[in-house]
Design goal:
With 234 residues, the chain is mainly β. It folds into two domains: 141 residues, Sandwich (Jelly Rolls), CATH 2.60.120.680; 76 residues, Elongation Factor Tu (Ef-tu), domain 3 (Beta Barrel), CATH 2.40.30. The chain has two helices and 14 strands, in the order H-H-E-E-E-E-E-E-E-E-E-E-E-E-E-E. The strands form three sheets. The protein has a six-stranded antiparallel sheet with strand order 6-11-8-9-10-7, with no helix packed on it. A four-stranded antiparallel sheet has the order 1-14-3-12. A four-stranded antiparallel sheet has the order 2-13-4-5, with no helix packed on it. The radius of gyration is 18 Å and the shape is globular.
Length: 234
Amino acid sequence: MAFLNRLWAILPSFGSPIQNDSLFLKNNNAISTTGSPNAITLGSLTPTFSKGFVRVKIYNDEVAAGTITGIGVILYDGTQYVSVGSLAPIAAYGGLLSIIAGGTQLVTNGSITSGLAVLTTATASTFTPSMVGLPIAVTGAGAGGITLYTTVLSYQSGVQVTLSTNASTTVSGTGTVTLTGQYGNVGVLGTSVAGDDYLFPFEVDMSATQVSVYITMTGATSVAVADIEVSATS
């Protein structure tokens, strides 16, 4: 789904944060109950840092097919590791929430090719220039056939736009395309959010070059998505 509110813009209290999305941001990471714990690593980070925040957003989890049991955040400086965050969501939370793309559904006949970012539809006048920059979801186009959450990078015509993220799975005329900027709300809690959003502040006595987030899920085979953002300074 990606981040709409960025840490460096809303939590600048540790000084001037490093802004480098190619290194300090990683969206649409597939996590699952198989192969748990799932490791998501942001490595070779420059400049080095010693304080800041790590944000972890998780979607499509905590349904009957799988539940998150643990999240850990570890920093590394090339020599030593330091744990700066660890939690286990309450057991009662599992099974209450699930995910659908919230917002405005556009079409159900979207097409996109794996490795490419061009999204097309057979329905005339689906897209408009004002959609550039808006968050968008395409079912089936993410890693392993999960929903791809990204933003509209550019507009070409009413039947074609380019997304900010390449598809991981080819979808041919069957993708549900939705303008989304919110969590889904189909769980038993009605309008409650269908995802998890965690923030880990840290300050360590070393110059870190790597952040690793470990996410453990249990239950039947299930696939979820995690976004990781780091906002830090030396």
